[in-house]
Amino acid sequence: MSYDKELAAAKKAASLAARLCQKVQKALLQSDVQSKNDRSPVTVADYGSQALVSYVLQQEFPSEFSLVAEEDSKDLRKDAAQELVERMTKLVNDSLASDGSYSVTLSTEDILKFIDSGKSEGGPEGRHWVLDPIDGTKGFLRGGQYAIALALLDRGKVVLGVLACPNLPLTSIRDQQSPNDEVGCLFFAEIGGGTYMQPLDGSSAVKVQVTAVENPEEASFFESYEALHSKHDLSSSIAEKLGIKAPPVRIDSQAKYGALSRGDGAIYMRLPREGYREKIWDHAAGCIVVTEAGGVVTDAAGNPLDFSRGKYLDLDTGIIVTNQKLMPLLFKAVRESLEEKASSL
Ligand SMILES: Nc1ncnc2c1ncn2[C@@H]1O[C@H](COP(=O)(O)O)[C@@H](OP(=O)(O)O)[C@H]1O
Ligand SMILES: [Mg+2]
Ligand SMILES: [Mg+2]
Ligand SMILES: [Mg+2]
């Protein structure tokens, strides 16, 4: 089955949302930051991006629409958020107008409804869009990496994914010469069709592949910038076992999956603290972008990620990503390190 029409819509929605986010990041004001009850930050751009993507997808697929997305409008309906909602409404309307294909002016209530249409629970039946309107909000606030991550599930499987990474250099992050290098990448993948990357400004796409490195000593690895999101000491001990020489590359968001899909690095390890439950929007798009580029994504027990169980990914311990050749070595090092840790407790 082809998902070409869905992929085209997803690319358009994510690119428009990326433009909105870039505009906000440039003019970031402290008051744009709200605090959700889980204490993770969320900005006018997270909400605006979700409203925009939800609107575009509903225009393109009016009859069959289900969206599992990270944000909801609860905090925005409080009096204190009124100014933020008005500014966000203007941002979304300006972004839609700049595209030219939608002649519409949405009201604040429309916008809140589009945000709330992301409340689907997903699951193993039918089709569901999966959206992280800004993945890596902390990176976004720091001026670092972030991604607009959009995927489509069909009967529980990820069948397409798009990652817009507005701050990711077009060339490998390993050989960055100057801070002026061009940035803004759009990664996209459809099941069975490979992974492509194009500049966010719309010029032509190139096919990408994960690295062919087989010797772990030559590999480099990615992990979260935020030490709270992934145990840096554990990944260091795994890297040491593998003989990896290069220091870890710490970047925010699913930009890690994008960078890995084009071979900027060989390994991504995500080892959250006990009790943390991963959400599908944090991995669905990244997972297909890497697997279609020839990579492998599993949990720490070697199982593929199961996106069919609702909004949570119930997995064993963490997520590991690399190419086919290195996976057995990485898996072994991860198991040994986890066992050593368990026996030292
Ligand atoms: N304690 C924790 N452990 C692991 N991941 C966490 C976490 N707290 C938040 N996250 C997730 O980590 C994501 C960012 O990924 P990364 O660590 O790769 O930059 C966040 O996405 P959002 O920024 O969309 O909220 C959030 O879902
Ligand atoms: Mg968040
Ligand atoms: Mg996220
Ligand atoms: Mg997010």
UniProtKB/TrEMBL annotation:
Recorded metabolic or biological pathway in which this protein acts: Signal transduction; phosphatidylinositol signaling pathway
Record key words, sorted: Hydrolase, Magnesium, Metal-binding, Multifunctional enzyme
Cofactor(s) for this UniProt protein: Mg(2+)
Record protein name field: 3'(2'),5'-bisphosphate nucleotidase
PROSITE patterns: IMP_1 (PS00629), IMP_2 (PS00630)
Any one of the GO BP annotations: inositol phosphate metabolic process
Statement: the UniProt record of this protein carries the keyword Magnesium: yes
Source species taxonomy: Eukaryota, Viridiplantae, Streptophyta, Embryophyta, Tracheophyta
Residues engaged in binding Mg(2+): E70, D132, I134, D135, D282
NCBIfam families linked to this entry: bisphos_HAL2
GO molecular function annotations of the record: 3'(2'),5'-bisphosphate nucleotidase activity; inositol-1,4-bisphosphate 1-phosphatase activity; metal ion binding
Keyword Lyase among record annotations: no
EC number: 3.1.3.7
Catalytic reaction list: 3'-phosphoadenylyl sulfate + H2O = adenosine 5'-phosphosulfate + phosphate; adenosine 3',5'-bisphosphate + H2O = AMP + phosphate; adenosine 2',5'-bisphosphate + H2O = AMP + phosphate; 1D-myo-inositol 1,4-bisphosphate + H2O = 1D-myo-inositol 4-phosphate + phosphate
Coiled coil: none
Function of the molecule: Converts adenosine 3'-phosphate 5'-phosphosulfate (PAPS) to adenosine 5'-phosphosulfate (APS) and 3'(2')-phosphoadenosine 5'-phosphate (PAP) to AMP.
